[in-house]
Every structure is written in C-alpha cells, then in structure tokens.
Amino acid sequence: MVKRLVRLAEHVFRLALPYGDGTVNSYLFEGQRGYTVMDTGVHDELTQREWLQLLEGGLQIEKVIITHMHPDHIGLAPWFQQELGIPVICSQHTVDLMKRYEVYAKQELSDAHAPYAFNRKYDGPELSERQFYRFMGSIQLEPDEVYRNHDRIMLGDEEYEALWTPGHAPDHYCFWHQPSGLLIAADMMFADTAPVVPFWMEEDGNPLSDYFRSLDLIESYPAELVLPGHDHVIHDLGQRARDIRNGHHFRMQQILGHLVHGPRTAGELCIDIYGSDRPVTQELLEFYTSLARLIYLQEEGFVETDERDGKVYFQRK
C-alpha cells in the first residue's frame, strides 16, 4: 500500500492533496480492477506531481468520480481523462452546470474590464465579468458516464447510493454505503468549519434553503463515519449538522440586529459583521455567503428589499 494513503475503512483510503494553506481530500476506493478516485484536487503542478508519484509507484486507477464542479474537486479531471486515459464520471447536474457557465462566459466576455454587474448590484467587492465567468466556467469536459440522484454507483467493488445535496453547490452530491454506515459528505460538512453556501448569481435561487434541506436529508441516514472534502473525519453526523445550522442562524441574527438601524446593502452588512481589513478571497466568500443568508431571510419573510441608484438595500419587515 502507498504510504501517502491513509486507510479509513475496509476499502476506503484518503489522500490529502495541497490546497492553498490547507488540503483537500481525495478518496480512493479499492477494487479488483484498481482504485476508484473521488475528486482530483486542483489543477496545478504540485497536485499533478503528487498523482504522478503515486502512479509511478504502482497505483492502478480504474476511474474518477466527481462530487461537484468546484475547482478543488474537479480541477485535474480533464488531465486524468485526456492525458492518462482514465474515465471520468460526474453527475448530470454537473454537466448541466458546466454548460450553463460556458454559455454565460461566452455572453459576458466581450469587454475584458466590464465589472460583474451582480456584485455592483449588491454592493460587493469589485470583480470583472471576465474574472468571475472564467473562474465559474473554467472546467469543461465531456464525462465518460453520468450519474443521477439515487443512482447506484460502484466505488471500487462496493455499491454506493448517489445523493443530490445542493446548497454548497447546485450540483453537489454525497454518497451512502449502507452496509458499513459510511457517508461520503464531500463539501456538505466539515469537522471544524462550516462549508461556504454562496449566492453568486441570480439563478442560484435560495441556496441556504437548499442546504438546510440537504442537511435534513443526510441526517436521515444512520451514518457511523462521515468523510468530508476537507479536514478530518466526522463521527457524530447529527451533532455536526446541528452545530452548522446554529452557526448560520447565529449569523442571521447578527444581520437582523444590524438592520435594526435601517436599510443596509449586503456589502455594508459584511463590513458591519466581518470588518473591512480582509484578504480579497475571504471578502468575496463572506459577501456571497452573507447574501445567501439575506436571500433566505427574505424568502422567510424577515426582510424585504428596496433598490435605489442601482443598488439593492435590505431592511427588516
């Protein structure tokens, strides 16, 4: 067995791949025809070198499964497929999302410096359309196979159930193995932090409401071991789900508290809650997450909006 792989269950191993200041988990499922890889890590030389060293050490890979389209999970999928000839399988939701982002990118990239209108509307950090849509539509591939909600899919030699769990991403999937009580949670939940639940384009609907429904769904499975996309394993699914819900509700109470003083934009509320001296990436993620909470509060009847001078203001009802 390759030393970098950490055994987590009888047929499941974890490979922690570099991602920014931390890691992203790739899971490998042992089978007679080789390993099934779940998620590839980002598309960079360091991650690619990690995989090449494993392959040169004798690791046999049968296929690659993608849980969702975020670049730290799907990033190297085209390389596996096109350079190594390994089949890549993703959900029909991911295929539809790739097509959607590709269309948007082609429509919006006529002016390299045009600001992303969505961010301006909600008073968010400055971002160009080119920056946003290139990121969102940066991965394009034709999968060798697709799976759908509740499909049975072989990971190694074991059959798992695919569970559509939107919220963190519209195409996000978890995987359930009933015989062992094993849940592959991907970015549905982490052991120590809460996944980002972003609202970053109008078509996203109400992602936090979707996320809460997804939490309800995975809580209905009697998981004994939960494997997240980042951080270490989770043993108490119910408690972790409650903690994450409580965290979102705490932040929403903060938002309502600040709105007591009058209408505020999403950008202003982010500064109220998180301060103004933040790294750009953190600022963007906090903005899109705060916006998701505001949309949720609006749908639940706690706030309403008013648009003035091209900007949306939120106020308590």
Range of strand content: 15-25%
Q: Can you count the beta strands?
A: 14
Number of domains: 1
Low-pLDDT stretches: none
What fold name goes in the CATH topology slot? Metallo-beta-lactamase, Chain A
Radius of gyration: 20 Å
Domain Metallo-beta-lactamase: 23-230
InterPro entries: Metallo-B-lactamas, RibonucZ/Hydroxyglut_hydro, Sec-metab_biosynth-thioest
Protein name: Glyoxylase-like metal-dependent hydrolase (Beta-lactamase superfamily II)
Catalytic activity: 3',5'-cyclic CMP + H2O = CMP + H(+); 3',5'-cyclic UMP + H2O = UMP + H(+)
Spell out the blueprint of helices and strands.
Layout: E1 6-9, E2 12-19, E3 22-29, E4 35-38, H1 45-56, E5 61-65, H2 71-74, H3 77-82, E6 88-91, H4 92-108, H5 117-121, H6 129-136, E7 145-147, E8 152-155, E9 158-164, E10 173-177, E11 182-186, H7 207-219, E12 225-228, H8 237-259, H9 266-274, H10 280-299, E13 303-308, E14 311-316
Parallel strand pairs: 4-5, 5-6, 6-7, 11-12
Antiparallel strand pairs: 1-2, 2-3, 3-4, 8-9, 9-10, 10-11, 13-14
Domain Metallo-beta-lactamase: 23-230
Protein name: Glyoxylase-like metal-dependent hydrolase (Beta-lactamase superfamily II)
Catalytic activity: 3',5'-cyclic CMP + H2O = CMP + H(+); 3',5'-cyclic UMP + H2O = UMP + H(+)
